[in-house]
UniProtKB/TrEMBL annotation:
The gene is proC. GO terms for molecular function: pyrroline-5-carboxylate reductase activity. This is Pyrroline-5-carboxylate reductase. Its main location: cytoplasm. It is found in: Cytoplasm. Catalyzes the reduction of 1-pyrroline-5-carboxylate (PCA) to L-proline.
Length: 282
C-alpha cells in the first residue's frame, strides 16, 4: 500500500456505491487524503443515500427519488468514477454526457467495459481511464490495474493513480493487458480463499475443530504474506528456507509439485481470460 503521507485530490463524483465503490470511498475519506471540492455519491435507493448523512465532505444522491441525480453529481466534478454494474454503463454515460465539463476524467470501475465503449458515449473533451481494482480495497490492500484511454494524458493517469493509491498499490498497463490482469489480481483473492478452504478442510480431516483449523490456516496465510513483504525475498527463496532437506515439508511439496500447479493456474487464468473476452464482446 502507498506510504504517501498526504494526498490532495480534486472534486470527485462516485456513481454507484456498491461494495467496490464504498471501498474506494473509504480510501478517499482517510485522514491523509484531502478532496478539495468534496465527493458526490449516487446510488439507487434513498435509504442507502441516507447512510452518508453526516459524513463530512460527502453529498449523496438517490436516483430513485431524483432522476437528475447522476447529472447533478458530475456537474463540476474533476474526476467521475463509474462503479455501476457493467450492463448499466452505456445508459448512464448517455445520461451524464452533457453534464460533464471539458477536461473531466471519467474512470471506469466496471469490469469488461472497454475504453472504446466509454469514449463512444462521451464528448471528445472528456478523458477516459479504465481501472481494475480488487476486493482487498476494502482493507486498503488493493492491487489496481489502470489503463489510459486514447484521450487521456500522463497527468490524467497520474491523478487516477494517486486516487487508487488511497486504497492500495497501482499497476499501469495498456488496455490490451487489462483483461489478463483481471485474471491474476482481480480474481486472485478468490484463488487464495479457495486454497485456504482446502487447507482448512485438510486440518479438520486431521482432527482439529473448525475453529482451530481456521486459526491455524488463516494465521499461516496472513503470516506468510507479511513475511513475503517484509523479508524482501522471493517466494522461491522463502519456500526453500522452510523446506528442510529430507524433512516433512519437502515430502508435502513433492506431492504438490506432482500436481503441476503452474499448469493448473495457467489453465484457470486462461479460462478466466476467455470469459473476460466473452463479456467484453457482449
Amino acid at each position: 500500500m502507498s506510504t504517501v503521507e498526504s494526498t490532495r485530490l480534486p472534486s470527485i463524483a462516485l456513481l454507484g456505491a456498491g461494495s467496490m465503490g464504498r471501498a474506494i470511498l473509504g480510501g478517499l475519506l482517510a485522514d491523509a487524503v484531502e478532496v478539495t471540492g468534496g465527493i458526490r455519491v449516487t446510488n439507487r435507493s434513498a435509504e442507502r443515500a441516507a447512510e452518508f448523512d453526516g459524513t463530512d465532505g460527502v453529498t449523496a444522491f438517490a436516483t430513485e427519488s431524483d432522476p437528475d441525480a447522476n447529472r447533478r453529481a458530475v456537474a463540476g466534478a474533476a474526476v467521475v468514477l463509474v462503479a455501476v454494474k457493467p450492463a448499466m454503463v452505456p445508459d448512464l454515460l448517455d445520461d451524464i454526457a452533457e453534464a460533464l465539463e471539458p477536461g473531466t476524467i471519467v474512470v471506469s470501475v466496471a469490469a469488461g467495459v472497454t475504453v472504446a465503449t466509454f469514449e463512444a458515449h462521451l464528448p471528445e473533451t472528456v478523458a477516459v481511464v479504465r481501472s481494475m481494482p480488487n476486493t482487498p480495497a476494502i482493507v486498503g490492500r488493493a492491487v489496481t490495474g489502470v489503463s489510459p484511454g486514447t484521450r487521456s494524458s500522463d497527468a490524467d493517469l497520474a491523478l487516477v493513480r494517486a486516487l487508487f493509491e488511497t486504497v492500495g498499490t497501482v499497476v499501469e498497463v495498456p488496455e490490451s493487458q487489462l483483461d489478463a490482469l483481471s485474471t491474476i489480481s482481480g480474481s486472485g483473492p478468490a484463488y487464495v480463499f479457495l486454497l485456504i478452504e482446502a487447507m482448512t478442510a485438510a486440518a479438520v480431516e486431521k482432527g482439529f475443530t473448525a475453529e482451530q483449523a481456521a486459526e491455524l490456516v488463516n494465521g499461516t496465510f496472513a503470516g506468510a504474506s507479511e513475511l513475503l513483504v517484509a523479508s524482501g525475498k522471493t517466494p522461491t527463496e522463502l519456500r526453500i528456507q522452510v523446506t528442510s532437506p529430507k524433512g516433512t515439508t519437502e515430502r508435502a511439496i513433492a506431492v504438490l509439485q506432482d500436481a503441476d500447479l503452474p499448469a493448473l493456474f495457467t489453465r484457470a487464468t486462461d479460462a478466466a481470460l476467455t470469459r473476460a473476452k466473452e463479456l467484453a464482446a457482449g
